[in-house]
Every structure is written in C-alpha cells, then in structure tokens.
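Quick one - inputs below.
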Amino acid sequence: MTALLNILAIGLLLGGIYALVSLGLNLIFGVIRIVNFAQGEFVMLGMYGALSASLAMGMDPYLSPVVVMPAMFILGCIVYRFILRPLQGEPMMQIFATFGLLMVIENGILGLTGGIGQNVSSFISSVSVRIGPIQIGLPRILVLVLASVATAALWWCLRYTLRGKAIRAVAQDRKAARLMGIDVEQIFMLSFGLGAAFAGLAGCLLAPLYTLSPQIGMNFIMPAFAVVVLGGLGSVPGAFVGGIIVGLTEALSGFYLDPALKHAVLFMVFIIVLVLRPAGLFGVSGAEEVGLREQS
Amino acid sequence: MKLTRRSFGGLAIGTAAATLVNRNAWAADPIKIGAVNPYSGAMAQYGDEVTKCYELAAKVVNEKGGLLGRQVEIVRGSATSPQEAIAAVEQLVGRDKVDMLTGCYVSAISNAASEAALNYGKLFWETNALAISLTDRGLPNFARSGPSSNEFALRSVQAVLELIAPSIKKTAPDITVWIEHEDSSYGTSIKDEQVRLLKEKGVKYSVGSHSAKAIDVTDSILRAKDAKPDVWISTAYVPDTNLLLRAARDQGFKPSAIVLVGVGDTPETLSALGKEYLEGVLLVSYPRPDINPKYGPGASGFLDLYRKSYNRDPIAPQGLTAFVGLKMLFDAINAAKSIEFEAIIAGAKTLDKPVGSYETGYGVKFDKNMQNTRALPVVAQWQGGAVKAVFPPEALSEGVKVVNLPRQS
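Output:
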C-alpha cells in the first residue's frame, strides 16, 4: 500500500512537470494552430535564464521568473513577428521554421556553453518532506503547486479578461474575430509571446531538478505533445489533466512493469484515447482538424 | 586581369618552383596521424580533450627526435556521428594524406571510422572508445590500447567483492547488488558482463534499466529501494546519473555503497549533488594523474606537461588514457619499423610490458582481437569534493584511504 501511495504521489508530481511544459505549447497550438517544435528549446532557454540570473544576480531560480518570463515573452513576440508571421498562410512552412528554430537555439546554446552540463541550486533543492509514509522532494511539490496556479491563472485570464476573450475569439474563428474588430495579428503575437513566457516559467521551475544541457529541451517535447493531444488541442484544463494522466501512466507502468516499457504503455494509452476521442479528453469536437484547414 | 604571354610565363615558372619546393618538403614529411573525434556538439569538450593529449604525446616524441626519424603530426577530423566519421576519414586520407588514424571518444564514431579506414588500407588505433563489439569485429586494421566496457564491468565487480564486501562485513553469497543501467548498448553491454561475473561468483543481484533521456527516474529508484540491496551500481551518462542520485537522495534510498561506472567523477556531478552527499561514492573510472607514482610512473610528469601546455588542469581523466594510447602506438611503430597497418599490427602483437609500465598504470599485451589485456580502469572515490583512486591498493597515493564505507548518509 505504501509503495502504491508513493508511486501515485510521484506520478502526480511528474504530471505537474508535464502540465507546466505543455501549457505554452497548447496555447500556441490552440490559437495560432502552429505545432511549435521549438517549445522544448524555449523551456531549455528558461532553464539557462534561471542559471544566468543566478550567476549574474545571485537570484534563486524560484524568483527568476520575474526576469525570465518577460524576456521570453519578448523573444516569443520577436520570433513570431520576424519568422512566423511572414510565413502566414503556409502552415507547413511555419512548422519547418519552428524546427529550424529548434536547431538554431540548441546549437547556439551549445556554442555558448561548450556543451558542459550546468546545475542551478536553490536553498530548497535538497529538501525532501515526509507526508505519512511518502517521502518527496520539496522542489517537485513546488512545481505541481505552481503548475496548478499557472493553469488556473491562464484559464481565468482567457475567460474573464478582454484580451483573453479576444484570444478565445481568434482561436474559435479568426475571420469572424477580424470582422468584430480584433487585431488578429496582434493576438497571434501575444499568444506566441505568452506561450514562450510559460515555457520560460517551466524552465525556471525545472532548472533545480535537472543538469542543464543544450539538448534537454528535446526530452520534454515528445511527452508534451502527447499531453496536448490527450488533454485536448487548445484546452487549458486539458493540458493540466493530460499532464497528470501522462505522469501517472509513466510512474505506474515504470514501477509495476518496467521503466523501459513506460513510454510504450504511455503511447498505447495515447492511441486508445485518440481512437475513442479524436479531439482529446477536453477538446472540442472538430478542433483537431482546424490546424489543417486553411485560415487567413 | 588580362592574361598576357609574360604573365602566363611567370605563372608557369612560379608553379614549377612551388612544385620543387614541395618535393624537397616531402623528403622531411612528418608521419601524419588523423585524430577522429567530436570537436563540435555535445561531446566537443571531451573530444577536444582527448586530441589535446594526442598532441602532447606527439610533442613528447618529437622532442626526442621523432618516430622512425620523422616528426609526428596530429591532424584533426571532426565527427559527431557515424556518418560524419566516414566523411572525416575520407577527408583526412584524401585531402590531408594522413598515414594512419586514431580516436575516439564515442564508440559509434569509432565503429564507422575504423571501417572507413580499412577501405583506404589505413590503421585505426583506438585509445578510448569502450564498446566490446569494436574488438569483437576482428577488423585487421584495428587495435584498442585502452580498456573496453568489459574491463569497466570487471573493476566494478572487483570493487563489490574486494573493497565493499569486507567493509560491510559480508561475503559473496550474502551481499546483494542492484545493477542499474541506461538502456542503450553502452549501459547494456556493461550490465551483461557484470551479470556474468556476479553469477560466476554466486552473488545475488537484481537488474533495473532506464532511458538516459527520461524526465523522471524515481520509479527506477523506488524499485531498487524495494529490493534493499547492499550495493547499488549504476552505468549511465552524466545527466541521468545526476537525476538518479537526486531521486535517491529525495527518496531516502541509502544502500551501503554506491558505485558509478564510467561517469560521476566530474564537476558536473559535484555541483549537482554537493560534496556532502557524494562523500564516499565509488567510481569506476579511467586512471587519473594523481595515482600513486609507483602504480602509474610518470603520471605527475604528464600533469606538469599538460598544465604547462594548456595553462589549466585536465578536464577529464580520458586524456591520460589517450596520451598513453598514443605512446603505445609509437612503441608499436618502432617495433614494426614501418607505418603500414599490417606491420604496425604485427609490431603491436610483439609488445609485452607488465602492468605499471605507463602513466595510467597500464601494461600492454594484445589478445587475438587486438584488445590490450593489461589496461584496467581504477576504482576512485569522492573524498571532500575531490576524486581519489582507492583500488587496486597499489594505485592509492600516500595518505589516501577509503572513507564513508558503509555510507552513513
């Protein structure tokens, strides 16, 4: 029983990591309909941002989102304005462009760091807490809590603020939104910037858990796509629930079957969900097709 | 520019003169050794480090008058993948006219480069890549001067039986071992040999695997924790090793001994875990320059030479093994009195030096597959934030002893 509780807790915490990484990816896909292959690299940049803030200002990585998120937001806006916007109306080319961006960012950081692994530590890095029979690291609990807060904040903003409503309107029908006077291009740029900023937040919170390397972003991106598709394309709560499902599936199959089989089990669940609910658990029926439909 | 008869004549005379000068230079041409390693990408710093140490070995031999009366020159060929390795060999042989090739930090690159070298009839002298399959192929142009993955597995099992078991007051049938490995051919090949050796000695063991790219390895740690082993041996890369150790710390997994194979001895692991947690962690590693001078004669001389040449300390212990590997190649060439690959391989087969002959403590005696049977890694240990050799006993420097075994934290 203790083992089961322990592994459920581990799965939940891992789900928090996936939810956090998928939040920005889902926002970008939901609004702009771009499959952003460089999202993992944005997370990696967030990690190196936390490292830079720690080295330059002695800032704890858990405080570094204060500087990293705005920086990533600006980077996201620049990437959209100068790389993706000129390719508007060429969805396949936009996807290839994000793949090119992935290579540029990864190799750029590789050139800067020489590939040497880096670590960022916080005063809580090595603290683990015991809750009944379960022992878990405090940084992981913090990731789950902040992933929940970030999801709730994004959901609230999209639902109740004017900008959020504009983002949802563009996500639903960009032509109608344009006719209603919404500056669609500005909303795209805002959404991409926000997606990058959330990746930056994920990077800052995950930096104390991992040894940083320029290739680390690639490790996150595959499960993150599974999370987004499982939860429902473009659905904010879907990304969170999808993250938790993926985390629990991985942890349970890794412990009770074999760690080597956990990805096989995860993608088996992924295929079953897709067959039964093509739009994902929280997606709107038909949303999965919108990305393929030409919109201008 | 307008080509006149006068300018054409000048050009022709110039070309003829340049050819004559080149012919004169050929007479004193150095022996060129192509060094195939990754000089860009994730492993660039280690590829560069290995080749820096080849260059030191060339410098040493050149200062003594060279090899077969000729200077030795190292020519770099960059490869980060097997495909690039083939292109690098083609370029080194075709454009740079190298006489033989050496390398390499990565087994997959060595595999492709050595086969490409055979197509050109060139020797491939392996100093560092570990995969046992490299020598198992029986390529006629291939020899490995350094240890293979089997030697790393052997040392880890020796550490369990000869170092850890007496410290925790257990013997072979009672001691329990968990073998954790990353699931590519690197980790799996070392695990297979560890399993074979432990089975042979009657030691109880369990095996767990994980992906080196896993986001979370807590499930692997919980499985190991459930098995309550005395010794936890891990073969992985740097990022997943650090992740495993962090998960072990968070989960309160405290085996009597932790043994890391191949990695865990760099500042990357020290900064990830801190010296308090790492105190007493054992490492199966390449011999380092600070080993006992009786075990590795001249190791401190290598360190001085390195510092003088590059104004820093070596960044990885692989460099010393690369340096020694090239010295063995020079010994083989001297024995062959030729730079043809068949002659060098025949010359290498005649080498017979006991353990403790080189700076790493290696000796040299090649088996039928051209694997040096007298190149063994050492067992080192984290002590106060530094790595010290602790096994075999002859490798211990003065004043060094084993600490925190069984682990208290």
